[in-house]
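Structure tokens please, single chain.
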Amino acid sequence: CWQLCSGAHLECWNIGEIRRMKMVSIIVPVYNAEKNLRRCVESLLEQSYSNIEILLVDDGAKDSSPRICDEFAQIDERVKVIHKENGGVSSARNMGLKKAKGQYIQFVDSDDWVARDYTEKLVAGIEKNSSELVIGGMIFVHDQIQEVRSLKECSIKQKEVWERQFGFLYKEYYLNSVWNKLFLKDKIVEFFQEEISLGEDCCFVLSYLRNVSEIQLITDYGYYYQMGSPDSLTKQCNMREFENAKLLYEQARSYAVETFGKFVGKEEVSYILLQDLRRLLVQINNQRIWNKQEKITYLKQFASDPVFLGMKDEITRLGINQKILFGLLRKRYFRLMLLMMKFAWRD
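Here you go.
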């Protein structure tokens, strides 16, 4: 038998049993991740599910990440390292998909880590009812605070059940990421869209959903998502963010119409778009290098956007602060809007 050691825990696996276990390819895009990379990979090497390969895709990192990847490959044959020129996270994941040998595909980000039984729980979930996708919970980590997000177990095989779940899962961000899921490799028809840098996960998931009909939700949560620092990309002003948000809105709308014959989840999908816009408005307001007139120039673009203007009903369902924020934007009261944001919407 094989003996796999993880700390004080010892497990014995029968060779025949391991051969029957389907392989999971765990794809980890790596770029300048030296701070947290060891924690991430060590958590994968300690997985209780033994039949895995770990694909570390070095996306042209400039720090010591490539060397760390190679060190892990030297000590454990399950680790495969792919060095490539920088092309972004989608490019790295696509490279991993091309090299993956497993029947199952799992994604993990290099800043994050997973519980020891995480892969095992995902596999059990997808095999429980011969499902084609399993969706689990996650744990958001910010400093020393952990927020657990979990789902109720549900086997989705009927369109009516999926119709009831779709809007909720989208609004609560269960569909917007790839790392709380396990995919069937032979069901992946379209890879990640490399031309977009925000929302590429959701686009991939929506594309995958078009090719499957049986989905399993599990109560288990074992993915630790490291929240970004205040100076991370998510806190900086990126004017492409709203265009990407609208792209996701349109893709979610198209998927819903194709699947259900109507825009199921319109309120929830619109809510996510408005939250993306709210964050961008706050980022614009916080830009110290822009004067007031420069900020107003950007606000005018949003105030004239037809997608935003078409969400009048959805805005009425928001909280009072957001109603005021978007109401001022719709009425083009830009200076009053910036003044109020200075005191009420700092982050």
